Amino acid sequence: MDCKRALEEADGDIQKAEDLLKERGIAVAAKKASRETREGVIEAYIHSGNRLGGLVELNCESDFVARTNELRSIAHDIAMQVAAMSPSYITSEEMPDDDRRPPEEVCLLLQPFIKDSSRTVGDVVQDTIALVGENIRVRRFTRFALGE
After folding, report:
1. Same domain assignment for residues 19 and 43
2. N- or C-end of the chain: fewer Cβ atoms within 10 A?
3. Long-range contacts of 116-121 (CB under 8 A, 24+ apart)
4. How many domains does the chain have?
5. What residues make up the domain containing 80?
6. pTM, 2 dp
7. Average pLDDT of adjacent 10-residue blocks, the chain of 148 residues
8. Same domain, 10 and 66
9. What is the largest CA-CA distance in the chain?
């Protein structure tokens, strides 16, 4: 029904309707940002060859959402992102003042998403928040590589 309403508001223009839906999703995500996240999943990604891996804790509000395919899928994608892109921080607020590296390179939520470089990891998380209707937060992550 949301898609139908957006198409009606956009007078049949699909691109404009998509933009409207995206704006509404961001607004929904912003409303949920202050909600507490105590449930969630821990997901691991091990790259072929077993020499590189990523581990991520993704929190949500309820165990019901924690068991959904949407949350498990995004957790897996973020673990893959961690293994591939080796971020150091979750957000730019965590960066120390003396770290001069570009935030887009070292902050997980600001990095281009490996499956769609036109979006950031933060955009993908926001879209999932709008989809599942609960706040989602990347709590922590780590990357493992043989010899490092």
Report:
1. no
2. N
3. 121/78, 121/81
4. 2
5. 37-145
6. 0.78
7. 70 74 60 71 95 96 92 97 96 94 96 95 90 90 92
8. no
9. 57
